Amino acid sequence: MPNTSHNDHRIEAKFGELRGLREGALVAYLTGGADIVEIGIPFSDPIADGPVIQASSMRALSNGTTPLRILNMIRELSTQFPVPFVVLSYYNPILAMGLDRFLQKARESGVDGIVVPDLPVEESEEFRNLSLKHNVDNIYLAAPNTSQTRLRTVLDKSKGFLYLVSLYGVTGPRDSLSPQALEAVKAVKSLARGKIPVSAGFGISRPEHVSAVIQSGADGAIVGSALVRIVANHLDDPREAETQLKKTVQSLKEATRLTSD
């Protein structure tokens, strides 16, 4: 059975554990090597996602993937892997199931946190209250251009960690990180004052990206599209996909380790 204790706070505990080891968290959609597993629910209009995730969503939907199937998969995985699980879902699939029912099913399946990229903090009171009721951490997003006033609200309302969008635009692998991304990490960490972990995502696809955001103060690095692209490139050879994924995740995880001053 999934661990559904109302007092475990596994995301918070994981960041605390890694802090003691002088490591950042690798947040990714693989159970083998990631500190926190993030699994997306496919949606037909993923406005925050680039072509890699859009294509994977279409493949999943065409094969009959539903929110309940994703939650059932997490239920199975959470009995095998003792790591926190985070769901990323747009708001429409949640509304279609019903807010309370979705969150109850999520928690029963072993979900620890949820990211809803198209639900602004200002419009999320009902959803946040239900998330608190079911002990599912509500993880909000902030961008480099988020005002300090709004950022304080996001930091105050977030649980588990704050998801820092490290660039302007949609998800997807990038060749390099901009200086603005690292400045955003430093600025948000300064405002957070240690009250909640900050994890950076969007465009983070290489070990050097992970290392840069962790060294700049981020508590975690979120990698999605780079791993999904490996799967897409090996749809006809799942064993090779598994080999490449394991190798990539290992190198990404190694990059979360803080170097000595």
Explain the overall architecture.
The chain has 261 residues and is of the alpha/beta class. It has one domain (10-254): TIM Barrel, CATH 3.20.20. The protein has helices at 10-20, 51-62, 67-78, 91-97, 99-108, 125-133, 148-157, 179-192, 207-215, 225-233, 238-254; strands at residues 25-28, 36-40, 85-88, 113-115, 137-139, 141-142, 162-165, 198-201, 220-223. Helix 10 packs antiparallel against helix 11 (238-254). The longest helix is centred in the last third of the chain and has 17 residues, at 238-254. The chain is globular. The model is unreliable at 3-7 and 169-174 (pLDDT under 50).
What is shown here, in short?
By secondary structure, the protein is α/β, with parallel strands linked by helices. It has a nine-stranded parallel sheet with strand order 5-4-3-2-1-9-8-7-6.
Q: Please indicate the count of domains.
A: 1
The assigned CATH architecture is Alpha-Beta Barrel
Strand content: 5-15%
Biggest pleated-sheet summary: 9 strands, parallel
Q: Spell out the helices and strands N to C.
A: HEEHHEHHEHEEHEHEHEHH
Task: Throw out a few tags for this protein.
11 helices, globular, 261 residues, TIM Barrel, 9 strands, nine-stranded parallel β-sheet
